[in-house]
């Protein structure tokens, strides 16, 4: 079992989304005018809240990084493994108070719920009926948290429904969705939700057709778009593919990177706002500039260009802890992870290297983080990491290894960084 970033599996299911999108009609969303005031949808006016940060990416293969010299306060959470809790693949990790939530979109098509000590609580699976009304969940393409009610939301795009569960995985209710979307997140401390639709559509609501970012209440009660806030990002090119589905809700901070862009926007509430936060700058040509220059690409061309390893790219995956340290990855020939400190303006990272010296470091086996939680970054370890590592293990890590079997669930690692 391996953790597969959703951004990497996303291109393989573009066709599915596109096929669904062509079937959208007013009848599919019957009753939408009772929920959405289609004539009064406004556009969010962008207001800069802080200075946009320019991040210079080091030249590929020019830097290696000993993460162990920077890590501190490492702790491990071993996830309980039973027949019911065995996770097949991990596409998303959500952390809320008292709960660890793992999402498998592709293999088991299930949501696994653990407490913060790693004890298994429950599992939500697709392909079954829920509630007294026997509403059938055909599948789900997104999982989000309603921070106001502490509910888990599963988005069933095929059925145009949202299924709601409590943090123990108990079914609560189901509601109809009135617009097409791919991703959703609740802006914490508000009743506002962000909806992402990167594939066009929603002709039944004309105000939405030229924007990929919507805002509104629960149950797709859309009230705003980001058309004006993102107008400067438009290229005017009729691309055949969309390949930067970059939308992360990390530590209750929401980041969005438009298609074919190296600018990361942050979305906030009270008041509702979207503004550029980070801009990536490369030491060489990047693939999105190449695509804009060529004016038109298809998926075969994109893969061909990508495989040449001549162009830098940034997937828009951003994680931030409470110390305003951001983690992001870029690629050319290989994936390289970096950390940026907003306090000092420094960037550290690159290909990870680990010492073979003495048992004095907090963590020997390193993986790039999959999310962040409060002041911590969070990575995943897998049982075969213990077998494959060539490096000296710390006493803390050896204690985890002693109680880990090859068939066990992955282990979550929480860690902080020394100031850099």
Structure description:
This protein is mainly β and 420 residues long. The chain has one domain (6-417): Neuraminidase, CATH 2.120.10. The protein is 10% helix and 35% strand. The chain contains six helices and 30 strands. It has helices at residues 6-9, 14-21, 287-294, 299-307, 383-388, 395-402; strands at residues 42-43, 53-56, 64-65, 71-78, 92-96, 99-104, 110-114, 120-125, 128-130, 135-137, 142-146, 151-156, 161-165, 171-176, 183-186, 193-196, 213-217, 221-225, 246-250, 253-257, 263-268, 273-281, 313-314, 319-320, 325-331, 335-341, 347-352, 371-373, 376-381, 411-417. The strands form seven sheets. Strands 3, 23, 24, 25, 26 and 27 form a six-stranded mixed sheet that branches. It has a five-stranded mixed sheet with strand order 1-18-17-16-15, with no helix packed on it. β21 and β22 form a beta hairpin. The radius of gyration is 22 Å and the shape is globular. The chain starts with 5 loop residues before the first helix and ends with a strand. Mean pLDDT is 83; it is low at 1-24 and 355-365.
| Most strands sheet | 6 strands, mixed
CA distance, first residue to last residue: 34 Å
Tell me the β content.
35-45%
Instruction: Please tally the helical runs, counting DSSP H or I stretches of 4 or more residues.
Output: 6
Shape: globular
CATH topology: Neuraminidase
* Helix-strand category: mainly beta
Q: How many domains comprise the coordinates?
A: 1
Tally of extended strands?
30
The CATH C-level name is Mainly Beta
Which parts are unreliable, with pLDDT below 50 for 5 consecutive residues or more? Answer: 1-24, 355-365
CATH architecture: 6 Propeller
Percent in helix: 10-25%
Radius of gyration, in Å, reads: 22 Å
Q: Report the average pLDDT across residues.
A: 83
């Amino acid at each position: 079992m391996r953790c597969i970033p959703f951004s990497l599996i996303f291109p393989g299911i573009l066709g599915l989304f596109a096929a669904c999108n062509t079937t959208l009609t007013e009848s599919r969303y019957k009753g939408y005018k009772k929920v959405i005031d289609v004539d009064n949808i406004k556009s969010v006016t962008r207001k800069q809240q802080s200075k946009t940060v320019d991040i210079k990416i080091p030249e590929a293969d020019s830097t290696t990084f000993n993460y162990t010299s920077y890590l501190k306060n490492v702790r491990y959470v071993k996830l309980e493994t039973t027949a019911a809790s065995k996770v097949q693949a991990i596409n998303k990790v959500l952390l809320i108070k008292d709960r660890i939530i793992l999402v498998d979109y592709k293999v088991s098509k299930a949501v696994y719920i653990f407490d913060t000590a790693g004890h298994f609580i429950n599992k939500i699976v697709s392909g079954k009926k829920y509630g007294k009304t026997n509403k059938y969940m055909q599948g789900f393409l997104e999982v989000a948290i309603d921070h106001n009610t502490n509910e888990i939301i599963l988005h069933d795009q095929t059925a145009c429904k949202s299924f709601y569960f409590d943090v123990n995985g108990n079914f609560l209710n189901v509601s109809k969705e009135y617009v097409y979307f791919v991703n959703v997140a609740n802006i914490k401390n508000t009743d506002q939700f962000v909806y992402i639709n990167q594939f066009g559509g929603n002709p039944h609501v004309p105000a939405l057709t030229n924007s990929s970012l919507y805002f509104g209440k629960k149950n797709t009660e859309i009230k705003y778009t980001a058309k004006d806030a993102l107008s400067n990002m438009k290229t005017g090119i009729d691309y055949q593919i969309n390949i930067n589905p970059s939308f992360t809700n990390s530590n209750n901070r929401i980041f969005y990177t438009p298609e074919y862009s190296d600018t990361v926007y942050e979305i906030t509430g009270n008041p509702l706002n979207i503004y550029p936060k980070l801009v990536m700058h490369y030491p060489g040509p990047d693939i999105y500039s190449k695509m804009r220059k060529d004016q038109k690409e298809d998926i075969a061309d994109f893969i061909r260009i990508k495989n040449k390893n001549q162009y830098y790219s940034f997937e828009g995956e951003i994680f931030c802890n409470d110390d305003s340290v951001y983690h992001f990855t870029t690629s050319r020939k290989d994936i390289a992870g970096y950390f940026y400190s907003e306090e000092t303006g420094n960037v550290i990272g690159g290909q990870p290297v680990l010492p073979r010296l003495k048992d004095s470091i907090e963590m020997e086996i390193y993986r790039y983080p999959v999310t962040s939680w409060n002041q911590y970054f969070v990575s995943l370890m897998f049982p075969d990491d213990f077998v494959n590592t060539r490096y000296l293990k710390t006493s803390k890590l050896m204690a985890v290894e002693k109680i880990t079997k090859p068939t066990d669930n992955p282990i979550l690692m929480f860690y902080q960084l020394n100031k850099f």
